[in-house]
């Protein structure tokens, strides 16, 4: 037996096994010789015979054990050889599969390379043909230009030039031809005023007045490349967009302009309205106007010294990228069962529903009293500039020295009931003004495409245009009426002044005992 047949045994183990096998062979040979020599001898005693047979059995057991070990070793060696052959076979299969895939990829890349070469060759031929056509067109244009110049020289030599004629032809930039029939029809002098008012929420005279006011700021000059868009068209694009809330792609089709151009016009005109018209049509009234407003509000409610009615509404927006949680409107989300984001518009109106002060752009998560505290109106009131003037608000505002709000606790007295009803009549003036604002300018009713940073300018322009329409008695069509759905929340700290509490109680007492209450409880 060769030692190399058992590679997993070392030299010492093999020597030990060989020595054991040799001893076993010697024992077997000696046993056979002894048995042959002692055939004729007498058997030993019975006890000695038993010991002899026991030794022989033990020797045979050892021999059989070593034989089993050897058989196991040979079986393990055979299994190892089979595993090596299996591994070799699998390795060959993997290699063949890899080679097949590599050949397929190489063939595909070769085919793609051939196709690309064919494509580029076709492109080269196409470019050559285009260059040839351009060359022929250039030659034809040069020839035509020379002929035209020669004819012009001949005519100039035969007749004197006309005054004001251009010496060189104007260059023109290629502009996509779009239909402007819709706007040409509306801008026609013969177009009915009622239809114009229904479309643009104002009469043709009011529209022309706005165009005249903005002419110096909005007007652009013609260039050698293209003619400027007229002022009337610029203003019309903006007002139509605010009035209908149509997507820019539809606005561009109506006016025959590009989408980006319409978006730019809306922002430019809104900025011009804020810069030019806001100071004329939306400002805090002077002392004489305040006294007039006090008398009109007193005739409405019987409450003295009321200089304005205050209300805060929300305008829906698309979820902003930054500070999204601050613009989340929890109340609108719960009511609409849809995630809502908004910004606030706080406004003060006179008895006719004309805005005298606005605060625009604070996040929709803020309550009415928080918006009021951050507004310029609050700074004016805290500085004492609203002395002897009440600004009437709802229960969402706190009671201060200049803000008058209704009673909010339970178990009201008769005088407190009467006071709340009269406060509600003043509040109704502001709420109806905001309803007309949103009804007239439909862009405020739904989420707009305007970016968040540009939205305060657009909302301010809507408030200015609202004032112009109200001052010029521009009516609102019945189908455009809008109902306000702003939830009123009681202010956390509803009492900010003890003097205001006493003044409110006195007003409530006077309303009831002077016969001005007129409550439905009496």
Summarize it.
One of its GO terms (cellular component) is nucleus. Pfam families: DDE_Tnp_4 (PF13359). By secondary structure, this protein is of the alpha/beta class.
Question: Could you explain the architecture of this structure?
Answer:
- With 522 residues, this protein is of the alpha/beta class.
- The protein has helices spanning 11-37, 46-158, 181-186, 193-200, 204-218, 231-244, 248-255, 259-281, 287-301, 330-336, 368-374, 376-382, 414-440, 455-471, 498-513, and strands at 306-317, 341-349, 355-363, 390-392, 403-404.
- The longest helix has 113 residues, at 46-158.
- The chain is flat.
Identify the overall geometry: flat
Q: Overall pLDDT, averaged? A: 82
Number of helices: 15
Strand order in space, largest sheet: 3-2-1-4-5
Question: Low-confidence parts lasting 5 or more residues at pLDDT below 50?
Answer: 1-9, 35-43, 156-171
Radius of gyration, taken over Cα atoms and rounded to an integer in Å: 51 Å
Tell me how many strands there are: 5
Task: Summarize the helices and strands and which ones pair or pack.
Blueprint: H1 11-37, H2 46-158, H3 181-186, H4 193-200, H5 204-218, H6 231-244, H7 248-255, H8 259-281, H9 287-301, E1 306-317, H10 330-336, E2 341-349, E3 355-363, H11 368-374, H12 376-382, E4 390-392, E5 403-404, H13 414-440, H14 455-471, H15 498-513
Parallel strand pairs: 1-4, 4-5
Antiparallel strand pairs: 1-2, 2-3
């Amino acid at each position: 037996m060769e030692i190399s047949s058992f590679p997993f045994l070392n030299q010492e183990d093999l020597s030990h096994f060989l020595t054991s096998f040799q001893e076993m062979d010697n024992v077997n040979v000696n046993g056979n010789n002894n048995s042959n020599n002692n055939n004729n001898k007498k058997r030993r005693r019975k006890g000695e015979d038993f010991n002899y047979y026991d030794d022989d059995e033990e020797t045979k057991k050892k021999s059989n054990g070593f034989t089993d070990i050897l058989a196991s070793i040979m079986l393990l060696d055979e299994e190892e050889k089979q595993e090596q052959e299996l591994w070799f076979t699998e390795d060959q299969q993997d290699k063949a599969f890899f080679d097949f895939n590599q050949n397929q990829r190489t063939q595909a890349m070769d085919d793609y390379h051939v196709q690309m070469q064919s494509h580029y060759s076709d492109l080269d031929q196409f470019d050559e043909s285009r260059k040839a056509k351009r060359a022929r067109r250039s030659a034809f244009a040069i020839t035509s230009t020379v002929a035209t110049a020669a004819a012009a020289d001949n005519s100039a030599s035969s007749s004197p030039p006309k005054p004001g004629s251009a010496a060189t032809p104007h260059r023109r930039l290629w502009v996509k031809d779009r239909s402007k029939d819709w706007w040409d029809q509306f801008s026609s002098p013969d177009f009915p005023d009622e239809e114009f008012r229904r479309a643009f929420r104002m009469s043709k005279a009011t529209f022309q007045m706005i165009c005249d006011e903005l002419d110096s700021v909005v007007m652009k000059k013609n260039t050698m490349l293209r003619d400027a868009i007229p002022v009337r068209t610029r203003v019309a694009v903006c007002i139509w967009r605010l009035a209908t809330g149509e997507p820019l792609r539809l606005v561009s089709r109506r006016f025959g302009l590009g989408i980006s151009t319409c978006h730019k016009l809306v922002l430019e005109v809104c900025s011009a309205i804020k810069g030019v018209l806001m100071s004329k049509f939306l400002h805090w009234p002077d002392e004489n106007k305040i006294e007039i407003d006090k008398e009109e509000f007193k005739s409405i409610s019987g409450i003295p010294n009321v200089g304005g009615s205050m209300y805060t509404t929300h305008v829906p927006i698309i979820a902003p990228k930054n500070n999204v949680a601050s613009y989340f409107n929890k109340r609108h989300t719960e009511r609409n069962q849809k995630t809502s984001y908004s910004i606030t518009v706080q406004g003060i109106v006179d008895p006719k529903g004309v805005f005298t002060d606005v605060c625009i752009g604070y996040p929709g998560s803020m309550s009415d009293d928080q918006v009021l505290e951050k507004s310029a109106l609050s700074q004016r009131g805290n500085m004492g500039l609203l002395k002897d003037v009440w600004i009437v608000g709802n229960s969402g505002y706190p009671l201060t020295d200049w803000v008058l709000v209704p009673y909010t606790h339970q178990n009201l007295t008769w005088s407190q009931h009467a006071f709340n009803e009269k406060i509600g009549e003043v509040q109704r003036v502001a709420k109806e003004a905001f309803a007309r604002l949103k009804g007239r300018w439909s862009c405020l009713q739904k989420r707009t495409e305007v970016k968040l940073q540009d939205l305060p300018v657009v909302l301010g322009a809507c408030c200015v245009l609202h004032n112009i329409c109200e001052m010029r008695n521009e009516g609102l069509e019945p189908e455009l009426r809008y109902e306000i759905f702003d939830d009123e929340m009681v202010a956390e700290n509803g009492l900010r002044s003890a003097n205001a509490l006493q003044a409110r109680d006195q007003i409530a007492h006077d309303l009831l005992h002077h016969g001005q209450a007129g409550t439905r409880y009496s």
